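User: Need the bound-state model for zinc ion:
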Amino acid sequence: MFCIQDTINNVMKIRFNLGNSKTEAMANCVDSTSTPSEEELGLFSQSEAVEGDDEREEDSSDSNVSTPKFLRKRVGFSDGTSSILDPPPFDVSDDEDENGLDLLANTKKAVNQAEELVRRVWQRGWQVVHHSHLPKWLQDNNFLVGGHRPPLRSFLACFKSIFRIHTETGNIWTHLLGCVAFIGVTVSFLSRPSLEIQWQEKAVFSTFFIGAILCMLFSFLFHTVYCHSEAVGKFFNKLDYCGIALLTMGSFVPWLYYSFYCTTAPKISYMALIFILGTACIVVSMWDKFAEPQFRPIRAGTFIALGLSGVIPAMHYVITEGIDRAINVAAMGWLVLMALLYIGGALIYAFRIPERLWPGKFDIWFQSHQIFHVFVVAAAFVHYHGISQIANHRLTFGNCLEADQNGNLIVK
Ligand SMILES: [Zn+2]
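Assistant: Bound-state model below.
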């Protein structure tokens, strides 16, 4: 395994053996308490490492042994196998001939190069890689050609990667900002005085807020730590799918609650239906194969079906209350717009448009997954607006309506 600490120590030893005055300074520099670990640097074992771009390959081939090859060669180690910790095979304090001076100069040059190498690896940590250089478990979308993070093996390195540009940067930030925005909306809604918004309304709206926040939080976490390792990626991928199901379930509750405010039986039945379907989606998401690339259309289809199950109560409302009330009272227009955004986003995700049409052109920005994320955030805000309208209308009227002898609706 490549070890930055070994390389630094070896450079120190060489310097010491040559009587270089910088030894003390280097000793301070490599104090174990101030040296970042491999984990922090995001480095990974050679056997598991993916090959990077040319620069990375050059670095790793130079640096994956304790003693860089060029260093051994230049100090004249005969077979290249003796440890760099051994005393040098010449006496620098004896009379030095020209060759000896050359050797000393070359050795110092080699040490400087090794120091430069350590400094560069230390500063950089990792570089983005080509899709073909990713391990199989990270090869999700082959239309994104370059700009991928390699496996980082450290949560700290994964979270630091939020601030670097790669294929997941847009996915991370779209849902991180969406999550923060919904936390803001939730805090402002729940902190309103109870005279203005009663606790029942706060409880009903909270199911939607919790669904939206968890969905975007899980998604943000998944895209951030996806490259940690196969096991971590799989776990957070499942959490991501659970988040979508939770958002869908949470979105249905206030809509059904206010749309069927005065009719308990359909309200309870539809809530039970969405709860069962949502739970089924979560159970299916736990299945390992569900996350594999070939199941992408099945995944999209499952969640579209979960969302479209809302067509049944919507049709029920239109038939019993009429299209006018559906649009003006139940904010059906906003709900249809929300459904179109979700379905549109899911289709873009399933067909991987636009990167399928121009592979390699949308590696960093405007890839299908980012568009899908933006559509999810937009749909959640449209839904919030829609259910606010339904709730306002319901609470303005105060009580349930019923028909009089002439069939006119009156406030009960
Ligand atoms: Zn996502």
